[in-house]
Structure formats: C-alpha cells, structure tokens
Specification:
By secondary structure, the protein is an alpha+beta fold. Among the domains are: about 150 residues, CorA soluble domain-like (Beta Polymerase, domain 2, 2-Layer Sandwich), CATH 3.30.460; about 50 residues, Up-down Bundle (Methane Monooxygenase Hydroxylase, Chain G, domain 1), CATH 1.20.58. The protein is built from ten helices and seven strands. The chain has a seven-stranded mixed β-sheet, sandwiched between helices.
Length: about 350
C-alpha cells in the first residue's frame, strides 16, 4: 500500500524531503533495535511512523497539499485536522483522538527586533511513536530545538512525548524576552513619570498595555492546554514524562502572573499620570486665578479713571497720574503679599 505513495513522493524530491534542499522539511528516525538516529526522507519517515519500528520526528514548514494528504492517508488523520493544519487562524487547543493528540499553540517570533513580536500557529501531532510539527511561518522554538537535536540526537531515545516537551519548553521560554522588554519599558515609564514628568509618556503606557493585552489573550488558552497535558492522564504521555510538562506549565503560570502584575503596574501608572496632569493643571489655574484676582481692582480703578468725563478727581493735579500709578502698584503688591502669606501660590 505504501509503495505507490512513496514512489510518488520520491519522484518529487529526495534527501531531506520531497522539496529537496530548501530546508522546509526535516525528518529523523531512531531505530528501536540499534538506538541509532538518522535523517531520512519524507516517505521513509512516514513508512516508519505507520509501521512503528522506531521513533519518528517529522517537521514540515509551509507543507504542501501532497505532504498533508500523505500524512492523513498513512496516519489516519481526520479531514478537519487537515483543514486546521492549513489555517493560520485556528485558536489554541488540544484535541484527543483514538490514536493521537492534536495540539495547536501560539509560538512567539521576533520579527527583526525585540520590539516587533509575531505570533505563529504551531501544530503538533503526537502519536505513540511519532511527533509531527507543522507550521506555515518560521518558528524560532523549532529552529532552536533542531539545533539541539543535531547536537544531541540521543534525545529521540526518550520518545515523541519527550520531544514534544522539549519543543513546548522552548516555545514557552520564548515569551521571557518579551517580559524582559516589558519590565525595562515599565521602569522607563516610571522614571519619565515621577523623576522628570514627560507628558508624552501616556502614548507609551497605552502601547505597552495593548501589547500586554495581546499577549494575555494568547497566553490564557495555552495555560489551560498545558495544565491538561501536565495533569490529566494521557495514554500518549507517560507519567515519567508528564513531570516535565508540569515544569513547562509552571513557566507559563509565571508568565501569566507577570503579565497580570505588569498590567496592574501600568494601570497604576496611568492613574498617576492623570493625577499629575490634573495637579499640574490645578497649579497653573491657581497662578492664573491669583493673577486675575490681583488685576481685578487694578482694572476697576483704571476703568473708573479712564472714563471720558470732563471733571475727574485729581485730573488737573500736576502729579495725579503718578499718584494713580503708585496706588495701583501698592494695591497689586499688597495683594501679592497677602496671597503669598496664605500659601495660595
């Protein structure tokens, strides 16, 4: 049954997979008898996965329709699972089938710099002897794991469930650099807010709050998934391996709690910002009110003596103007001294 499929696949390409040397596919096989791990082509990996003669790891980036149909045919995948593998908008979830687990998680990627975070769907198909990773965009966690696998091929001896743990561990740890960035930005916000008040800090607060909201929305479902994998009995995850999943679950709990903490800190920072803006506005209004109060009697006197009547007291006195100016200055000075003693400014 397999030979026609294998011949068709090998006609398209060989070596690391049906797409040749483009590094979009990686297949490894650990033979149970010899304990020797080797890289194999896609058809050989599928044959070993179906036959159960060893532990198989298959990694597909941007899988073709042929590859997905081959996996579905050889490993009896449901058509809805194949549909999910082709969709980048599937929510994080874990589905249990008769012979495998289907896990979808959100993997963090830094697009060029640490301020630009991209989240990619990572699909994991866990069988008793096989783990298949499928994604449509590069995933840093997979790249790091395959580098580790090249250095330590003996990892495969512990089985597909342990390989999936190593991938999940790297995936979750990929969020810690994001938390470090948020922590540094939060410190910068507090400095700009309290040590040297910067009115433009409000836009930074909103930007970081938005980032935390997006991360929280992705971390929440993954926390539930990892809790199930770590604590619920699973036929495909032995108890001795499930202990490692609990460690990953502890990490994502730390990330979730840190996001909650940063969100509270930023909310407090925004409240403090609004309080400081209101305080500074009150200070300005107080000074303006004092100035207006001082000017009120001066404006009144100037208005009275500025009327166009022929006879005004002191209008014909030689020093009348200077006396009037002196009276205005005395009233203004006396008002300022009075307000200062009352601590109005």
């Amino acid at each position: 049954m397999l030979e026609p499929h294998r011949a068709a696949l090998n006609a398209t390409g060989s070596g690391r997979g049906i797409r040749g040397e483009d590094e979009m596919q990686s297949c490894r096989l650990l033979e149970k008898k010899s304990g020797h791990a080797t890289e194999v082509d896609f058809a050989t990996a599928l044959e070993a996965a179906r036959g159960g003669n060893g532990y198989v790891y298959i990694h597909l980036s941007e899988p073709t329709q042929e590859e997905l149909e081959s996996i579905a045919r050889e490993l009896d995948l449901h058509e809805l699972t194949i549909e999910d593998l082709q969709n980048d908008r599937v929510r994080s979830k874990v589905e249990e089938f008769e012979n495998h687990l289907f896990v979808v998680l959100k993997a963090p990627n830094f697009a060029g710099d640490r301020d630009s975070l991209e989240v990619v769907n990572l699909n994991l198909l866990l069988f008793r002897n096989t783990l298949i990773c499928v994604h449509r965009k590069p995933v840093a966690a997979i790249q790091e794991f395959e580098e580790e696998l090249s250095r330590r091929p003996a990892i495969m001896q512990r089985g597909p469930s342990f390989i999936m743990y190593r991938i999940l561990d790297r995936l979750v740890d990929g969020y810690f650099p994001v938390l470090d960035d948020i922590d540094e930005t939060t410190d910068d916000i507090q400095t700009r807010l309290f040590e040297r008040f910067d009115p433009s800090v409000s836009s930074l607060i909103f930007a970081v709050k938005t980032r935390i909201m997006h991360l929280h929305r992705r971390i929440g479902p993954q926390r539930e998934i990892l809790m199930n994998l770590a604590n619920r009995p699973e036929a495909l995850i032995p108890p001795k391996i499930q202990i490692y999943y609990r460690d990953v679950y502890d990490h994502i709990i730390r990330i979730h709690d840190a996001l909650e903490s940063y969100r509270d800190v930023l909310q407090s920072a925004m409240d403090s910002y609004m309080t400081l803006v209101s305080y500074r506005m009150n200070q300005v209004m107080k000074v303006l009110s004092v100035v207006a109060t001082i000017m009120l009697p001066l404006s009144l006197l100037a208005g009275v003596f500025g009327t166009n009547f022929e006879f005004l007291p002191g209008s014909h006195y030689r020093y009348g103007f200077w006396v009037f100016v002196g009276v205005l200055a005395a009233i203004g000075t006396a008002s300022a001294i009075y307000f200062k003693k009352r601590h109005w400014f």
